[in-house]
Amino acid sequence: MAADNPIPQFTSLGLASTNFNSDDDFPPIEEDHTVIPTGIKRTITPSQNTQPARKRLPSEPVDLQIKNFEKIEKFFSERHNSVFSDPDYYKAALSGENESSQRLHNMLSKYLTCQDPKDRTVFRQQMVNIYWEFVKSVAPKMTSTSTHLAKKMLLRFAVVLPTLFTEEQKELFSTVFVENESGEPIYYLDEWFKDIGAGRVSISATDEARPQKKTGAPGEETNRLQILQSKNNGKLQTAENMLLSKESERSMVEAELKSRIDILCDHPVIPGLEPHKSAYSEAQKKLLTEISERLKLLLKLDKEINSSINEFREAKEIDNSLRDKIAASGGVTEVSSTDLQTELETVRQMAKMTVGRQGNHFPVFTREFFHCLPRQTGFRENVIDMLDWVESVDPGAFCRIHKNVSNRIVPFVILVPTYGDTGFCWEPFDRYNRVTSRGRIVVPMYPKSLQIAILTAVADLRWQVAKEKASYYWMEEGLTGQYYQWISAQKLKGDLKSFFINDYVLWMTKESEGVQRLDKEVRAIFWRHIPFAQDIKEKLKTRSLIYQELYQRDVNRSMSDGY
Fold first, then answer.
1. Please, what sign has the CA dihedral across residues 56, 62, 67, 72?
2. Distance of alpha carbon 203 from alpha carbon 340, whole angstroms
3. CA gap 470, 477 in Å, rounded
4. 445 is a domain residue
5. Burial 314-347 (b: 16+ CB within 10 A, else e)
6. Main-chain phi, psi angles of 461, to 5 degrees
7. Do the domain assignments include residue 15?
């Protein structure tokens, strides 16, 4: 591909001698009409004569009533974003970053004009540190509404120089939707740093202990209150979800009761003895017992509803109190520069992990390394569509059970513009709210296979959630316990989680289609703890005796008390 599409000479851009140390060298950067093309917003419009629903923000708390992803109708915009065709894109992207932009410019110039393969490899390696130093400078500016779109696109896609596109690639990236119209917590890097910097999303967990802030430091009280609020959010959402569930159950029982009473009160006139009506029939007499049972059930539900109301009221009062205190202390506090730098280092580590030790760490987009098909590139719409497929095969992929109630909690998905092939889970849930908080998974944008990259991330999430659920008994109980015992029995050496991830990929891509690739014991473990959707189970039981036996086990368990 590189041979067919040679990288243009840097000097042909007319920027070889550009000096980035002074902002005087650049035209003034203003809020450009190309920042959010109108065509992008017009692609998704509400129905005529209807009031558009409020757009859900990806940083909002989890809505436990949402049970699935909305189907993606359009993957690419019909209107083109003109930012990549802007002749001043390069200057706008690099201006205002002082020495870091100049170093990036100089190194990029050396790399693109170098003819010696050995020197080119050296420059390529040096580019990594220089690029991430530049990111440290530009990332904090994502919170500003006046930041030029070119800087955002550089951070989002790692597009430093649009001439490194082929014409087809420029066409492709120009049709990618700029805004998050779905409301799903799927983040490009510029959006991630925007919400992190504004305090709407907490910084990612690290192994290193965070330095303690001095007592009385500005924003310390607000931060403390926000942590308490995060802890209470789990109780609040769980109580509300339980209340809604019990109310729904009560409505169903009441509807059944009403229909049976209507039947009970129906007395046909006795022929010849008008206007007298007949006594209860045998069927009506049986209804009296059913009505009695449902009245008892309603009393039981009423007790549970009262308990849920009290829990919800208590959590709601705490939430209101904390909101008032946060407002009195100055509202949402922006993340400190130290915390933001910590997140930057974390994101850099994420990028390294997607690539691996032996992968291509080159941080800048170039036609030389980009080989993805449009629908296999890690754009937000493609990722949502793939996550929807994952959930259609593995309905419990994003479910977390609390008090015997399954809550669907989609994690934050951070899209990192790297040439990596591996997605992973950074953290399964927030450390302050293990009940309803979102976890964090990382997906590379330019992988060989987007499906595999997402599956490895979901597999890692599943493993970590199951391990945290089993706690100290993770080697004995549940999914992790049974899998660990099987690996130990086989005397296999290596990373346990890596074995699991590889098997999960086979489970989703092969076993779901009836192609038997897993060991018999592993298949049984996955069938029990990572069950396919019911329609897939129904299909598989007709494909092979092996799946039929597993299906029959489900039937037997459902008929027992211990299911």
1. positive
2. 8
3. 6
4. no
5. ebeebbeebeeebeebeeebebeeebbebbbebb
6. -60, -45
7. no
Among 270, 295, 328, residue at a domain's last position: 328
- Give the whole-angstrom CA distance, residue 196 versus residue 141: 12
Give the closest residue to 455 by CA, choosing from 500, 508, 512: 508
Which long-range contacts link 291-295 to residues 24+ away (Cβ below 8 Å)? Answer: 291/257, 291/260, 291/261, 291/264, 294/253, 294/256, 294/257, 294/260, 295/257
Q: Which two tokens stand for residue 448?
A: 């060989």
> Residue-wise pLDDT tens for the chain (563 aa)?
334 444 444 444 444 445 555 444 443 333 333 333 333 333 333 344 444 456 778 888 888 888 899 999 999 999 999 999 999 999 999 998 889 999 999 999 999 999 898 999 999 999 999 999 999 999 999 988 889 999 999 999 999 999 999 999 999 999 999 999 899 999 999 999 999 988 888 888 886 545 444 444 545 666 677 677 767 777 777 777 778 878 888 989 888 888 888 888 888 888 888 888 888 888 888 888 888 888 888 898 898 888 888 888 888 888 888 777 777 766 555 566 788 889 999 999 999 999 998 899 999 999 999 999 999 999 999 999 999 999 999 999 999 887 778 889 999 999 999 999 999 999 998 877 888 889 999 999 999 999 999 999 999 999 999 999 898 999 999 999 999 999 999 999 889 999 999 999 999 999 999 999 999 999 999 999 999 999 999 999 999 999 999 999 989 888 875 44
In a domain, 314, yes or no: yes
Host domain of residue 545: 491-563
Report yes or no: 166 and 367 within 8 Å, Cβ to Cβ. Answer: yes
Residue whose entry in the numeric block shows the structure tokens 């690739």:
517
Q: Evaluate whether residue 119 is within a structural domain.
A: no
Alpha helix (H) residue ranges in 114-188: 117-138, 149-157, 167-174
User: What amino acid occupies position 246?
Assistant: K
DSSP category for residue 435? T
Of 157, 180, 98, 227, which is closest to residue 412 (Cα–Cα)? 180
For the domain that residue 284 is a member of, what is the CATH number? 1.10.287
The whole-angstrom separation of Cα 178 and Cα 152 is 10
Which of 293, 328, 363 finishes a domain? 328
Q: d(Cα 342, Cα 399) in Å, to the nearest integer?
A: 30
0.85 surpassed by pTM: no
How many of the other CB atoms lie within 10 Å of CB of 472? 7
CB atoms within 10 A of CB 68: 11
Residue 80's contacts (CB-CB under 8 Å, 6 or more residues apart) are 37, 39, 171, 174, 175
H/E stretch holding 243: helix 220-264
Q: How far is CA 200 from CA 219, 309, 331, 470, in A?
A: 15, 29, 12, 31
**211 exposed, middle or buried (CB, 10 Å; 0-12, 13-18, 19+)?**
exposed
Q: How many domains does the chain have?
A: 2
Nearest alpha carbon to residue 187 among 462, 389, 379: 379
